[in-house]
Amino acid sequence: MARQATAEKRQRRERGSINPEDIIKGAFELAEEVGIDNLSMPLLGKHLGVGVTSIYWYFRKKDDLLNAMTDRALRQYVFATPYVEASDWRETLRNHARTMRKTFLGNPILCDLILIRSALSPRAAKIGVKEVEKAIAGLVEAGLSPEDAFDTYSAVSLHVRGSVVLQRLREKNEAANEGPRDLEDTMNIDPETTPLLAAVTQKGHHIGAADERNFEYGLECILDHAERLIEQNKAKTRKRSAKR
């Protein structure tokens, strides 16, 4: 079962002593205890020691509060995952993907707000776009066309987000103890009828699981494809130069 709300009672604040920053900060504190799904305005009021009407004065509904939390989470995420140039484009993109995944897996609240809920204000969304532009510019400089650079970064981003969301959903299913945790739990692998599957899974490989092995394999496949595209572009450039 998911953890039930257990906010401690606090000394009641004076009327008008709460502000939006206090509310958002308190919402994050409470979400760490009970999760985003169980966060409610009445429970937050108890956590902050104010009447729920004091919260509704600034945030008319829960979605408004979650939007504000998501905007702040995105700023925290961008700060935690800067696109730091390494010695070559492949190392840079690989490190960036690993950092993104590590940041989300290490903070379930960030994952729930940014990836699963993903409702951003125009201002917050603009922050993320600048980071993407920087990444794509680096790939173009490495030798990809703008289109291939865009598709490469998009593929890496989707791969990271997909693996994190699948892992997060597995954790939620485990906590709730409701049904299979992931695809592999629904499969009946019989050594007699599916010997290849049985042999490989016995060695620690998993089907449809967002584990480290699957993540790294998929990431290297994307990077390999990008490297082939760069080499193709270099070959075309050499041919054009030879004809002159």
UniProtKB/TrEMBL annotation:
GO MF annotations in UniProt: DNA-binding transcription factor activity; transcription cis-regulatory region binding
InterPro entries membership: DNA-bd_HTH_TetR-type_CS, Homeodomain-like_sf, HTH-type_TetR-like_transc_reg, HTH_TetR, Repressor_TetR_C, Tet_transcr_reg_TetR-rel_C_sf
Signal peptide coordinates: none
PROSITE patterns (UniProt xref): HTH_TETR_1 (PS01081), HTH_TETR_2 (PS50977)
Keywords annotated in UniProt: DNA-binding, Transcription, Transcription regulation
Matching Pfam families: TetR_C_1, TetR_N
UniProt GO BP: negative regulation of DNA-templated transcription
Gene3D superfamilies, alphabetized: Homeodomain-like, Tetracycline Repressor, domain 2
Listed name of the protein: Bacterial regulatory s, tetR family protein
Organism: Mycolicibacterium hassiacum (strain DSM 44199 / CIP 105218 / JCM 12690 / 3849)
Source lineage: Bacteria, Bacillati, Actinomycetota, Actinomycetes, Mycobacteriales
